[in-house]
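User: I'm writing a short methods note and want a consistent example. For Pseudouridylate synthase 1 homolog, I'll paste the sequence; you return only the structure tokens, no commentary, since I'll be parsing the reply automatically.
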Amino acid sequence: MTSTTWRSALTGYADLQQASRCLVRGGKGERSCEKTHVACAATPEGVRATECHFSASFGGWANKGKDLWSIRMTSKMSEEQHLSDFQSNRNEPVKRTKECVPELDGDGNKSKKFKRDEEEIGDEQKKFPKRKVVLLLAYSGKGYHGMQRNVGSSQFKTIEDDLIEALVKSGCIPDNHGTDMKKMSFQRCARTDKGVSAAGQIVSLKLWLIDDIVEKINKHLPSQIQILGLKRVTGGFNSKNKCDARTYMYMLPTFAFAHKDLEIQDENYRINKETLEKVNRLLACYKGTHNFHNFTSQKRPRDPSAKRYIMKMYCDEPFIREGLEFVIIKVKGQSFMMHQIRKMIGLVIAVVKGYAGESILEKSWGEEKVDIPKAPGLGLVLDKVHFEKYNKRFGSDGLHESLDWANEEERVEAFKEGHIYPTIIKTEIEEKSMRSWLSTLPIHDFEASALDIQSKKEEAQDEEVNGDSD
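Assistant:
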């Protein structure tokens, strides 16, 4: 069959480029693979390809179980192959392979979802669908080097290391997804640093919806890491990009706010009403959009990404645990940079204790370099993440769930009381991290210029070098 005859055999397609986007089912052309097949032609009699290139990541057919027919296309097909070569295979079911064309949705359009080769899926998982979900994750960060996994590095254990291991052991994901997390579209909503905990972390991923999935995952997790909830989301959902805001809490002993001239600077201190009001007044100054280049590292003053929007920040009423008085500071913002929250709190502590004037807050948002102390990471907790825009669009459409986690609130609070708060309190009492950090405040020069700060750093380095040589 010549190229001209072949073109004339096409039904309703002007050229091979257009025809290459279609396959045949029951004598009808269906949209399929757009740019992948550069010259595949479809007719009511069969499929012909002149030169087809395929991606190994393409999965199979959406219409599994249907009386489809096709060919097992290779990476390149000879132009001399004729339609008659395929007509005898018309009534045979499709053999799904990695070289198959993309999955079609119910309307015959190319789907964004691709399925793995059925031969690679265990018998137990074949009956379970692979779906995009979010997991509500809570953990105590002590003993872990942050949230994010470093594939190939076993030196520093992270929260995601234990989570991925539990997902594999419970049968939710195949083994190879543990080493290549992109295969399951894994995305964390927020990164947490070493020792930082979370009560409402959210991760999005694709997994097999096995029976009793939450219970089976938790069975393979340590007690300080738990899945508290699971919900289905849209196929293109990304927990980091869809998040509107994040709420963090910071738990600290109240003696951190004791003025430096007071005699009581330990667990016997109790914060008074006036001091608490001052703390809240200073924290409220952070509300709005400010340039926080001084509250992180490697950000230039005129870098647009240094500007962040803070919705609210306040300090709750004090409470006593193990003979020590604590307060919890809460801050909600669109997003935060590394160390930003700890430095925001550290600067307020320095002002309340009398090491810096209140004007330092305004100064810190300017272009001038300001020396800002970073509070310990022990008390920092990712409390909640917010998906207000997503909930408004999909939460009430009758097809998707709202990501507000109201039904899981009791479990979240129970995890805080059972794992997060006790760990913070016990560690503070044993290691005295806040007291040790407070002793470093006098060495900070809050009025120093950038040149002064650099000079002091160089002097300190010289002293260290000279000390090592002695």
